[in-house]
Amino acid sequence: MFNFLKRKDQVKEGLTKTRQSFLSKLTSLVVKNEVNEEFWTGLEETLIGADVGVETTVALVDKLRGRAEKEGARATDRVQAMLKEELLAILRIQNPEIRIQNSLPRVVLIVGVNGSGKTTSIGKLTNYLKAQNNKVILAAGDTFRAAAVEQLKIWGQRVGVDVVAHQPGADPGAVAFDAWQAANARHADYLVVDTAGRLQTNFNLMKELEKIARVLQKNDPTAPHETLLVLDAITGQNGLQQAREFKKTVPLTGLILTKLDGTAKGGIVFAIAKELQLPIQYIGTGETLDDFAEFDAQEFVDGLFE
Amino acid sequence: MFDTLSEKLNAVFKKLSGKGKLSEADVDAALREVRLALLEADVNFKVVKEFLARVRVRAIGIEVMQSLSPAQTVIKIVNEELIRTLGEPAKIDLSGEPPHVVMLIGLQGAGKTTMAGKLALHLRKHQQKPLLVAADTRRPAAIQQLQTLGKQLDVPVHSESDTVPPPTICINAVKRASDGAYSVVLLDTAGRLHIDDDLMHELEEIKQKTKPQEVLLVVDAMTGQEAVRVADEFNKRVGLTGLILTKVDGDARGGAALSVRSVTGVPIKYLGVGEKLDALEAFFPDRLASRILGMGDVLTLIEKAQENLDQDQARQAAEKILKAEFNFEDFLSQLQQIKKMGPISQLLGMVPGFNQMAKELPAEVTDAQMQRIEAIINSMTRAERQQPEILNGSRRKRIANGSGTSVQEVNQLVSQFKQMQRMMAQLKSGKGRGMFPGFPGLGI
Question: Taking all residues of chain A, what is their mean pLDDT, rounded to a whole number?
């Protein structure tokens, strides 16, 4: 319980920075508390500055203008409350139905572009799962990047879980296959599979990813039960393209939004949520094991207006 | 995107007079569309504002040239201003006495370590003796990562225990290089947030103690609006001499480059374009400008062709085409030359108007098709390649078996080839000069 609180605090602290800048911009807009053209322009810039993207921003602002007129809202704080509602509505996505609850090990496949924070997120996710009394096994599926296997092994040691690894350059599908066998034999609750970073434009590497998912299905036709795309909060409009392409390749069930302890707002998740109905499952807010939490849409959006 | 931007601009100008001078209203209408294009490319909104203000001043009152439409005139001005803002390309500064210290800094996951390896390889190609320095003691296995890269490249790596403070490691490395054994010392520092005061201080200390000739900020091409603040902080605290843009091989439009360049004023020195250690490119402002505007990358395509196509072979092939003596052997050698330039899908992406198509119609179709064609030709005997007319039913069956394709596919290729030969015969009588006439099956 104490640990849980500590984690919460750390996460909050990380998020505060994100909030402050967003908040200060919005409060500077509401000094006059009167909805005018200046307010709308400022609102638009705030959203675009948070990487929400032109299309989503224009759609949001249009909708708010319509609502403000219809509901006779002339005060900016009314419109701000509406914006909050709209943002929340976008993020409130039903988590995709979890397939076959009792199939063990539950396979979690972690994917994403280079440098988004996959391996670190796996360390934190594993710590999180283990704290809930789950037995976790890791699969070192990034056999490409120099020392990626070592990096995962260090996280495995820190958290105290086994890592199944092959030689660098080995077939990641084979690693995933063996890791599932090991996880099954050792009665693990979770198998978390690391994969090499890949840009969504790299056709061969995307095919390889498809194969990893296929190989996992040889062991358990319902696997992978979760496929999480790791997205760096600083990513701009390309984040949507990433989510689109990865979703075409593997059955994505959600996002891990990382590096939220910086000043980036991660606004692209609104476009992703809107178009692809992908929920954010977890957030990363720092480099230590505890800088990790389940995503809370209410908290996230509240944070932008606190 | 170029098509959509220019189409949008055309639509804007259709309502207007068309020729003559660009009025304020014309320009403002056009710049609204340009603004959207830049924002979609992740250029920071404040940078966009300043940029458009400059374009506006230049564009208003300008005479629309006879040869250009008003839309093209605006695009031309935007493009020129974009190129000017992106600045002149620059190489690593290695003037003065060695060893030259080069410091790589940036956020986590920007690609510093990979870039350190790429720069080491690049510098060695230019007769330098690089020493890589593992100054990232924070991220698990970062030291091993650099060591592995060093081994792959056969470039020495200076590393110490991860309990040694990074400034000490860097100082020791520079000492190690000062007896003349190494000419360039590449410091791979840990990724850090621009708002992490302690870690930013560590960079200041490393800089102060190693006196680097270059402090290069490594920026991910996919970075969004925050690029401005990140670059500004790193520049204010550490002082930058240059920028490196990574992951340019993806499909991000790379507007962050414009943001970062605007706010720091330091030159962009290199682009990272892939995971392989030789995937390093010089920066050309015109190409990046085209990319940010979504105009494709024709220049890169032209350069790739120049680099990879054997001019003699191309000339021979052209002569054969003109004489209508082109056979499967010539065809195969042309296919192989094109393949050297990279995946077809990637090549298509560089052609304006094709980049959308290249996305919709992924490598699957084109590259796999190319591979099958190659396999079929490789399964032919030399006589069959030189005299396609001897390909009878049993030969075709053998070729299909040998290449893992079907007789239908072989038939299709042969009939397409015959079609091509007929086209060449027509060219012979006409004025054809194409190196690679359209091959129906490939759709190129």
Answer: 88
CA atoms within 13 A on the CB side of B370: 20
Q: Name the stretches of chain A with pLDDT < 70.
A: 1-32, 94-101, 303-306
Q: What is the pTM of this model?
A: 0.80
Identify the burial level of A294 via C-beta atoms within 10 angstroms of its C-beta, where 0-12 means exposed, 13-18 middle and 19 or more buried. Answer: exposed
Encoded tokens for A255: 């996002």
> Please, which residues 268-287 of chain B have a Cβ atom closer than 8 Å to chain A?
275
Boundaries of every domain in chain B? 3-86, 100-286, 302-442
A215 contacts A193 by C-beta, under 8 angstroms: no
Domain B3-86: give its CATH architecture. Answer: Up-down Bundle (1.20)
> Is the domain defined by B302-442 classed in CATH 3.40.50.1220?
no
Peptide bond into B98 cis (omega under 30): no
- Among residues A149, A73, A81, A113, the alpha carbon closest in space to that of A238 is found at A113
- Chain-centroid distance of CA A133 in Å reads 23
CATH code of the domain made up of B100-286: 3.40.50.300
C-beta separation of B326 from B313 below 8 A: no
| Closest listed residue to residue A235, CA positions, set B355, B221, B175 | B221
In 3D, which of A153, A122, A84, A132 has the Cα closest to residue A226? A122
Which region holds residue A117: left if phi is over 0, alpha if psi is between -120 and 50, else beta?
A: left
Select from A115, A116, A154 the Cβ nearest to the Cβ of B141: A154
Kindly provide the ipTM of the predicted complex, given to two decimals: 0.89
Residues of chain A contacting residue B249, judged by C-beta atoms under 8 Å apart: 199, 201-202
Please identify among residues 70-89 of chain A the ones whose CB lies closer than 8 Å to any CB of chain B.
Answer: none
